[in-house]
Amino acid sequence: MKIAIYARKSVYREDSISIESQIEMCRYEARGEEAVIYQDNGFSGKNTDRPDFQRMMSDIRANKISKVIVYRLDRISRSILDFSEMMDEFQKHKVDFISATERFDTSSPMGRAMLNICIVFAQLERETIQQRVADAYDSRSRRGFYMGGKIPYGFSKKPTVIDGIKTSMYEVNPVEANDIKRIFKLYSKPSATLGDVVREITKDSCVNNRGKNWNTVRISELMRNPVYVMADVNVYMFFKQQGANLCNPIEDFDGMHGCYLFTGENTNRKTWDLEGQNVVIAPHNGFIPSDIWLTCRKKLLGNHQIKTCKAKNSWLAGKVKCGCCGYAMTIKKSKTRAGRYFVCSGRANKVCNTPMPTIYADEFEKLIEGRITDKLTNIVIKPKAESVSNNEIVKLRADILNIENSIDTLIDKLTEADSTTASYINQKIKKLDSEKTELLQQISRLEEKESKLPDFKALTNVMSVWDKLSFDDKRDVVQLIIDRITVFPDRVEIVWKF
Fold first, then answer.
1. Are residues 121 and 201 in the same domain?
2. What's the N-to-C CA distance of the chain in angstroms?
3. Which among 19, 83, 21 has a CA at the least distance from the CA of 46?
4. pLDDT tens digits, residue range 4-60?
5. Which letter does DSSP use for residue 133 in this model?
6. DSSP annotation string for 468-486
7. Sequence-ordered strand ranges (E) for 302-371
8. Alpha-carbon torsion (99, 100, 105, 111), positive or negative
9. What is the distance between the alpha carbons of residues 453 and 382, in angstroms, rounded to a whole number?
10. Which candidate, 6, 119, 271, 460, has a CA 20 to 30 Å from the CA of 35?
11. Domain boundary among 82, 107, 130
12. What is the C-alpha radius of gyration for the chain, rounded to an integer number of angstroms?
């Protein structure tokens, strides 16, 4: 292996050292050993886009070079990041580095110490740049700026100005928006599954997904996106309950604008796990009413909780518990005629010692299917007008209206109040606002309870064609109406969601 001498000069200056002089100084450091000369004349040191530098690096990767000598550190690089990456390559291929004038020699302990110091500063610069970029992204996203990415189906993009800065925003694409409305309307029916929606919309050639075929994954992704919702206080409460970061006050959720959802610092599964996600009111108007969007979003959230159990061997997976220890009953496969069994996972962990009869999966699924049919057949369907929750919601909304009127009256009085009275009025307004927030939370809980009530008539129709349903469709029906199934040695208990 040979020694490499590298020299660089960006522009001609009378007071700058020539490439020839640089090479001469480096030859002295080579102590008479044979050296290969690499030189870039007229190239800046701010990056590594230099022909002879790249040629030298190629030779180093080919293990042709044992040592690199430069006249001064800035001759090979003016970027500490590039220098750090270069030194990583040198270390990888066991190449020493010497700066002739700065006595920077990595073949000595002091030289290696200097190298480590440079790497520390390079890391600091990297992290500083990363933090600066992250802060800029966070700041712009919180202000509702368009942050790039694929334009959601149902929208096109147009230029706009926010806070005096040019950016972009979404505007509704009428044709695609009608497709989106239809998808939400179909899935908002309690008994509807993602498979039902796909089968229904693919019948209509007008719904084309921009030239691609629709599938359940695409439909699910689309309905989780809050860009479509006409975000109101109920949407605000939903995201708050899910642990999302609300970047706008509740007053901004005016029932007209859509939302942007940005991944937070501690999130990995975008749009599924809302914990730590950043929710921002967008400049564009949504077109899906909040009640329909929330019904679909909560339904998808419930479906996902079942799917995280990796239900693939039974459409009951994740619902069946052992009545003796509380552990999940999981599917075990065998080569016998029965093929599948439900077994207590607590026994494997030596938690459950209660003998349990053999639970054949096929027979057990038939049993639950019959229980579901009986339950739906015997259910008494109450008219919508008799809903107690609906009456309570109406009353709560009236109370909120009274509070808002009281707050408006107090705000008007602030302009004429002295400091003592103003302090009292502010405290009163704060108390009323807290009461309003509590009432909004009560409404959100009641509406969530109402939205979970299935369409029993539609479900009864579904049960009549149960054998024709897909695995996913059966699982969705179970998720909709069953909270849990508890198995005891002598009986099976089902806790229904209604």
1. no
2. 79
3. 83
4. 999 998 766 655 788 999 999 999 888 888 899 999 988 887 778 899 999 999 999
5. H
6. GS-HHHHHHHHHHHEEEEE
7. 320-322, 329-333, 340-344, 359-360
8. negative
9. 11
10. 119
11. 130
12. 34
CA–CA separation, 64 vs 428, rounded Å? 80
Supply the pTM of this predicted model: 0.46
Same domain for 210 and 106: no
Same domain, 370 and 250: no
Question: Residue by residue, what is the 3-state secondary structure of 235-268?
Answer: HHHHHHHCCCEECCCHHHCCCCEEEEEECCCCCC
Q: What is the DSSP string of 148-194?
A: -SPPPTTEEEEEEEETTEEEEEEEE-HHHHHHHHHHHHHHTSTT--H
Are both 194 and 282 inside the same structural domain? yes
pLDDT in tens, 395-426: 787 788 788 778 777 777 766 777 777 777 77
All residues at 6 or more sequence positions from 332 whose CB lies less than 8 Å from its CB, including other chains:
340, 341, 342, 343
Nearest to 258 by CA among 180, 144, 156, 140: 144
Residue 221 belongs to domain spanning: 169-307
Q: Is the domain of 458 the same as that of 339?
A: yes
Residue 285 three-state SS: strand
* CA 43 – CA 470 distance, rounded (Å): 65
34 HSE (CA, 13 A, CB side): 4
Give, for 451, the enclosing helix (H) or strand (E).
helix 419-451
> How many domains does the chain contain in total?
3
Residue with tokens 């107090």: 410
Listed as ranges, residues in the chain with pLDDT below 50 are: 266-270, 305-310, 381-387
Residue 156 forms part of a structural domain: no
- 302 with 224, same domain: the answer is yes
Question: SS3 of 73, please?
Answer: helix
Using CA atoms, how far apart are residues 43 and 45, in angstroms rounded to an integer? 7
Q: How far apart are CA 269 and CA 283, in angstroms?
A: 25
Residues 315 and 391 reside in one and the same domain: yes
For tokens 């933090």, name the residue.
Answer: 131
The Cα diameter of the chain in Å comes to: 100
Question: What secondary structure letter does DSSP report for 289?
Answer: -
Tokens of 330: 């999981």
Classify residue 26: in a domain, yes or no: yes
d(CA 162, CA 372): 54
Token readout for 470 is 């897909």
Q: Domain holding 15: CATH number?
A: 3.40.50.1390
Q: Give the phi and the psi of residue 66 in degrees, each rounded to 5.
A: -110, -20
